[in-house]
Write a sequence for this structure.
């Protein structure tokens, strides 16, 4: 039995080795914007090195353009790198792919694991030159959840980029934080083998005036089985000098905890005034759902929620039978500890304005 | 029986989890060199992040200083990161470790795998600011053999750095190539938990005149894996990029089996031709002392006499800052001899003091002098 299995096992292992042998390195950000472009002048000088002392490496480089004047189809270049050769591709997007005034990613695929790729993406204005090192990343450098730290705004600006090297589209959510405060959320759809860059992420999140040098962003795909490359370019506004922060693996956020608040004349349960206050914990993400439970025959069975701006909870005037109101997810922060009162906004709810005026509750953050 | 077996398995897993080794993330290059230092002003702003949503992370940061005026013992800082906290350490070497005018590495050790470290090492001169991203590296990113590409010289300069994060010493061999030409070799012993930086690697190997943007460096350890990097700096702006060493194949044993010309073949450094009557002077640098002809730190030259000064380092990279008044140029000193010709005149009578101008360790800045007499 063992003897009969061995050849089959050998074939399978051989096939597996063959399948594993092709290695793709991805440069997630390359560009060629000459002086006079809408963007600052930027160029990518790429170096491709073959670590083998004995075997040449056949390489196919594919330019995945997604910014600027992209060609209709993905330009390719094939070349061979001799043993221990370092091949130079200055201004690669222009000279190898003939795609001026564009930007994107480059995938370099070879039949083995001997390639090493480095690049410098640099600007020639206002100072010639300032740039950043953008390495060729292995597939393991892509993550379904990644965190980008050392983000800054004010004296600096930050662009956040993503590249989807999968053959399927994926939604990617970018959450920007300063300390524990979430500043904003952006969701983008990345087609297969494509990417995007959110320039001035603080502006995009509605916080252009914020000054910080210690923000972070979490980049998360909608499908945990699909990983994307992510990066941040943090740029000194005085010199245009960028650094390239590579997204590193992060934990996936726990699913929000849903809390249903049953609303009837004249009580929020939990919340008050008859039911106990709603107590929530710092650091846990919640989704509040207001659900009307007025008894049949109740006069004007419609209530409201005044909102709690300091918790980011909007108000609503329509908590009625069959119409649940779902609040956006929020995560109480340490500075939000304390009691946050709220009230009903429907003055004649339950048919009794006097009772309505007492329909007030509280959320306690502990 | 099955339940008992499952219980035993769970216990074993729990025990395994309890003894999981602490993880160390290493920043291989940090510094705090204020304005007025021998080198350009450089600073490191570091960020340490805890990815956990539920557990705080206890972190111990140890500064492994190996350049400049290093403290006698490795400074440490212990701190706790709350879940999802990003802690900022601006100018960490000074503010956290109180070690101004030094450089080295920082090791961050925590009991889990939740800590992520990033940093920006930047200069404020000649234009504020230009810098480079330096990531915190896991142990798996240290290699026994690594390659650094995108190495440049001419309009750029390149510094090569090594950090030995092991508890045993290592000897590193650094080979600089341009194309297939081996430009030079440096062999450097590294103490445990220590490192070094070879500034201006092309100068160090005696190839200062080479202009290239496509050189590479192979760093090979005699055993323990090393963190390696190249800082490739635009001379016009001082803007650096940080190239992290990537795993390389081990070279064939014995002589390098490529069509490798002698170290000086690709672009020979012009050797000055002294007049027949020149007096040869040997100037060596060794941590932390200059020595003329194997003796004192000063040398007397007679106006009108021609001297052929042979300069080199006997250990790590040192820097001769030059004596412009005598026409002597600034140069980095490695094991390869660099020769400069001097013929002081009567108008140059005086004493000229020169320090080491490349960070070389705790005694960096040591001085020598040349006195010109009528």
């Amino acid at each position: 039995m063992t003897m009969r299995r061995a050849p089959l096992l050998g074939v399978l292992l051989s096939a597996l080795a063959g399948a594993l042998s092709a290695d793709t390195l991805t440069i997630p950000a390359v560009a060629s914007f000459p002086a006079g472009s809408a963007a600052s002048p930027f160029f990518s000088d790429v170096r491709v090195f073959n670590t083998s002392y004995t075997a040449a490496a056949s390489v196919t480089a594919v330019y995945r353009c997604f910014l600027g004047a992209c060609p209709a189809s993905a330009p390719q270049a094939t070349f061979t790198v001799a043993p221990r050769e370092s091949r130079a591709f200055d201004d690669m997007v222009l000279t190898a792919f003939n795609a001026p005034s564009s930007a994107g990613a480059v995938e370099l695929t070879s039949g083995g694991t001997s390639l090493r790729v480095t690049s410098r993406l640099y600007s020639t204005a206002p100072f010639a030159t300032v740039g950043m090192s953008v390495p060729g990343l292995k597939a393991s450098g892509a993550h379904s959840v990644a965190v980008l730290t050392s983000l800054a705004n004010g004296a600096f600006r930050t662009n956040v980029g993503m590249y989807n090297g999968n053959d399927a589209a994926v939604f990617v959510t970018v959450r920007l934080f300063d300390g524990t405060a979430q500043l904003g959320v952006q969701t983008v759809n990345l087609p297969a083998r494509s990417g995007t860059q959110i320039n001035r992420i603080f502006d995009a999140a509605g916080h252009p005036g914020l000054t910080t040098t210690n923000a972070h962003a979490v980049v998360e795909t909608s499908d945990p089985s699909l990983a994307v490359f992510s990066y941040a370019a943090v740029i000194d506004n005085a010199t245009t000098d960028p650094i390239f922060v590579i997204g590193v693996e992060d934990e996936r956020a726990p699913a929000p905890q849903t809390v249903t608040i049953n609303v009837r004349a004249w009580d929020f349960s939990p919340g008050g005034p008859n039911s106990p206050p709603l107590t929530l914990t710092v650091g846990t993400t919640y989704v509040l759902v207001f659900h009307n439970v007025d008894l049949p025959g109740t006069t004007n069975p419609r209530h409201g929620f005044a909102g709690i701006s300091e918790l980011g909870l909007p108000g609503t005037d329509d908590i009625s039978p069959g119409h649940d109101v779902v609040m956006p997810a929020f995560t109480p922060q340490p500075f939000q500890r304390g009691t946050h009162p709220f009230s009903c906004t429907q003055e004649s709810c339950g048919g009794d304005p006097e009772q309505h005026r007492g329909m007030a509750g509280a959320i306690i953050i502990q | 029986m099955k339940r008992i077996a499952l219980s035993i398995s769970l216990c074993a897993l729990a025990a395994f989890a309890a003894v999981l080794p602490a993880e160390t993330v290493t920043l291989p290059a940090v510094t705090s060199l204020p304005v007025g230092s021998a080198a350009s002003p450089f600073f490191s702003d570091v960020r340490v992040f805890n990815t956990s949503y539920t557990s705080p992370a206890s972190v111990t940061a140890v500064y492994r200083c190996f350049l400049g005026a290093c403290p006698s013992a490795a400074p440490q800082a212990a701190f706790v990161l709350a879940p999802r906290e990003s802690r900022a350490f601006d100018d960490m070497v000074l503010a956290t470790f109180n070690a101004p005018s030094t450089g080295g590495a920082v090791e961050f050790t925590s009991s889990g795998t939740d800590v992520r470290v990033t940093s920006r090492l930047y200069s404020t001169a000649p234009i504020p600011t230009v810098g480079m991203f330096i990531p915190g590296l896991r142990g798996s990113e240290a290699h026994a053999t690594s390659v650094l590409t995108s190495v440049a010289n001419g309009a750029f300069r390149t510094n090569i750095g090594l950090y030995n994060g092991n508890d045993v010493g290592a000897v590193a061999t650094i080979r600089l190539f341009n194309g297939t030409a081996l430009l030079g070799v440096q062999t450097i012993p590294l103490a445990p938990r220590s490192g070094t930086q070879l500034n201006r690697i092309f100068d160090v190997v005696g190839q200062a005149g080479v202009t290239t943007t496509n050189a590479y460096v192979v760093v090979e350890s005699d055993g323990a894996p090393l963190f390696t990097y190249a800082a490739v700096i635009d001379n016009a702006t001082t803007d650096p990029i940080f190239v992290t060493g990537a795993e390389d194949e081990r070279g064939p044993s014995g002589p390098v089996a490529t069509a490798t010309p002698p170290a000086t073949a690709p672009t020979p450094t012009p050797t000055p031709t002294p007049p027949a009557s020149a007096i040869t002077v040997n100037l060596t640098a060794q941590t932390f002392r200059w020595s003329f002809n194997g003796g004192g730190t000063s040398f007397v030259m007679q106006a009108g006499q021609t001297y052929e000064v042979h300069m080199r380092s006997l250990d790590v990279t040192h820097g001769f800052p030059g004596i412009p008044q005598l026409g002597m140029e600034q140069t980095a000193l490695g094991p390869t001899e660099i020769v400069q010709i001097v013929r002081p005149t009567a108008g140059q009578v005086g004493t000229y003091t020169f320090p080491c101008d490349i960070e070389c360790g705790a005694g960096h800045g040591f001085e020598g002098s040349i006195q010109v007499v009528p």
Observations:
- Chain A has a mean pLDDT of 92.
- Chain A has three domains: 22-137, 140-253, 257-365.
- Chain A touches chain B through 50 residues (CB under 8 Å).
